[in-house]
Every structure is written in structure tokens, then in C-alpha cells.
Design goal:
mainly alpha, 65% helix, flat
């Protein structure tokens, strides 16, 4: 007689542990993916996240894997984001030829021109708005230096006046 052929024996109810709903793994869809990503970004292990969210660590791993999440890849991207964006920007700009520009709606050309103008000014260190912050800072520094000179001159005049009065 094999194991599967043996009859199932009844077990007394008091010998059975009843599992509450809260102890059963939550289905994948009940845990927001942004919660899993946030917890993983804080450095928590799959096991720690599983305990917090009330599911098994395999569930956490599968959910993050299903969206292609990798903490290491994310960190690498963050470290070289500017280079990634610069490369993509170059690729996009180089893919635009005269025919592509001609196909664009007029408002797209106008918006594109405005954006590129702002980016050009940023690259040249020029203002892209009404207020040029670097000029404003220089003006404040100049005024501060002038204030110190005037205070020194005032003290000097005050001391001269006091010495004449004696």
C-alpha cells in the first residue's frame, strides 16, 4: 500500500491550529507596488518587507521582479542620470531632420523653439527668466561691501567730531 492509498485519519478539532485571515499571505494585487519599492529603497530586505506588509518574501521578490525593479540598477541610474539624459537628448535631437520638422504642427515648433532657447541660455549661464539670480547675488554682495565702507566712514567722522568737541 502506497502513501497515497492510505485512508485519511480524522484529527480532533482541538489539535488543529486555526489560521486567521490576517495570517494568510495577501494576494499580490493588494500591496501597492510603490509601497514595496519605497521599503526596498530604504534598505529593507525582502524578508523585512514581507513582515511589514503581511506577505511572504517570495511575493515581495516576485512583485519587484515583475516590474524589473533592482535597487542596484536604480542607484546606478541615479548616479549617472545626467549622462543618461544627455545621451538621450543627443539621440533625440540627432533623429530630427528637416522632414520631421516639416511634419510638426506649428504649435509644436513654437514650443520646441522656446524650450531649446531656454536650454541654450542655461548652458551659457544666462537667465532663463526675468530674474537673473547670479546678478542679484553680485548686487547684494556689492551693496554689503559698500555698507561696510560707509559704516567705517561714519565711525571715522563720528570720532573726528568727538575729538574736535574735546
Amino acid at each position: 500500500m502506497t502513501e497515497s492509498d492510505k485512508p485519511i485519519e480524522a484529527v480532533p478539532a482541538e489539535d488543529v491550529e486555526v489560521i486567521s485571515d490576517k495570517d494568510i499571505d495577501k494576494p499580490q494585487k493588494d500591496i501597492p507596488i510603490e509601497t514595496l519599492v519605497s521599503l526596498r529603497n530604504k534598505g529593507l530586505s525582502f524578508e523585512q518587507i514581507a513582515r511589514i506588509t503581511g506577505c511572504c518574501k517570495q511575493n515581495v521578490h516576485q512583485r519587484l521582479e515583475s516590474i524589473g525593479y533592482s535597487k542596484e540598477r536604480l542607484e546606478n541610474f541615479k548616479e549617472s542620470r545626467a549622462d543618461v539624459f544627455a545621451f538621450m537628448q543627443s539621440k533625440l535631437l540627432n533623429s530630427i531632420d528637416n522632414a520631421a520638422i516639416q511634419k510638426m504642427q506649428p504649435y509644436q515648433r513654437i514650443i520646441g523653439t522656446g524650450i531649446l532657447y531656454d536650454k541654450e541660455r542655461l548652458e551659457r549661464g544666462q537667465s532663463t527668466g526675468i530674474i537673473d539670480i547670479t546678478t542679484t547675488i553680485r548686487s547684494i554682495e556689492d551693496l554689503s561691501a559698500r555698507e561696510k565702507i560707509l559704516e567705517a566712514q561714519f565711525r571715522e567722522l563720528t570720532e573726528k567730531k568727538k575729538s574736535k568737541a574735546k
